[in-house]
Amino acid sequence: MTDEMINQDDAPLDDVLAAALGTLPREAESGTMLEERTVQLLRAQGLLTNARRQQQPRWWIGAAAAAAIALFATGMATGQWLGARQTAAALAAQQASIEGMSSLVQSTGDAYVSALARLAENNGAPGAPGSAEARDVALQVLHQAANEVVRLAPNDPVAVRILQGLDHATTQQPSSAREPRRQIIWF
């Protein structure tokens, strides 16, 4: 801008011009039709939405909370039911397994006693071949069985005494008859 332009803007308005400017209206009132047409046009273009449509009804929050609680409760009930059913099946299988192991121990023990009875019958014959080896094997198996019983029930006094008696008998044998004993260190 030049200095002349600045001076013209700063110059006082003459009275005629000031009176003419004073008679002009300051604001023009727009009609209600113009406003309605503008709002309809903006809504048609998607630039303006209805304020009532933007507010979601509040009842859906309660319905969503109720559905979430129902879903959670159903999941918990189903999980409890499945867990109880699986636990019952596992306990039944374990009970059947224990009963099967008990019958296996019984049949194995019967076979061991039967074999010892036959060994005793054969041992009565003079000079029976292998009777000393069979006796040693029978004692070794009895010792291993006693070890397992003590491991199964460490506070059972009968099993502990049997194991102590077998250990004492093993140490009383002459050193030439004893085999080197394997030692197991349990941690």
Task: Kindly describe this structure.
The chain has a domain at 97-172. The chain has helices at residues 3-10, 15-23, 32-44, 51-54, 59-123, 131-152, 157-172. The protein is rod-shaped, with a radius of gyration of 53 Å. Helices cover 73% and strands 0% of the residues. It is mostly helical. The model has no long low-confidence stretch (mean pLDDT 78).
Q: Specify the biggest β-sheet.
A: none
How many runs of DSSP E, i.e. beta strands? 0
Please give the share of residues in helix: over 70%
Q: How much strand?
A: under 5%
Q: Give the distance, in angstroms, between the N- and C-terminal Cα atoms.
A: 100 Å
Class per helix and strand makeup: mainly alpha
Shape: rod-shaped
How many individual helices? 7
Evaluate the radius of gyration.
53 Å
**SSE series:** HHHHHHH
Low-pLDDT residue intervals, each spanning 5 or more residues: none
Mean pLDDT: 78
Structural topology:
Elements: H1 3-10, H2 15-23, H3 32-44, H4 51-54, H5 59-123, H6 131-152, H7 157-172
Q: Key features?
A:
mainly alpha, 7 helices, rod-shaped
How would you concisely characterize the structure shown here?
This protein is mainly alpha-helical and 187 residues long. Helix content is 73%, strand content 0%. The protein has a domain at 97-172.
